[in-house]
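Hi, can you check this record?
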Amino acid sequence: MSLNRSEKQAVIDEVAALAAKAQTLVLAEYRGITVADLTKLRVEARKAGVSVSVLKNTLARRAVAGTPFEVAAEQMSGPLLYAFSEDAVAAAKVVVEFAKTNEKMVLRGGVYAGKALDVNGVKALASIPSKEVLLSQLLGLLQSPVARLARVLAALAEQKGGQPAAEAQPA
């Protein structure tokens, strides 16, 4: 079914709004994938905060014109699925994980920080830990020296015959 001019403009505006908020775009070919499998992908994507759309490529090109995602315009051919995410790695993670379980999903590329990514670039982006994991790793690194110092001070106090003032427990 063909869209009229106002419906096309509404689609372009909606995708442009997604692109304005997003950090990452991943393109994947969905040829041969069942509707049930695409529905599973959309459910997983929604949980991760990723917007997955199947769009006409001409509408997608118009929607990303003037945005950092414009560099992907030459990759926009064939039946494509567009995954936008505000989180830098979420779209790549969702699509790459789905592609691992469904061989018909073919990664085509993507865009991050205004730079076009090839398939290996998208896979590399997907392998980066999430923001929460990175923050917890950083917190662990910052906490480690303080916890060690507290243990050493407690051991010194115990050696000198005094009782430690408080048990040094890492937080």
Notes: Residues 129-162 form one domain. The longest helix spans residues 131-159.
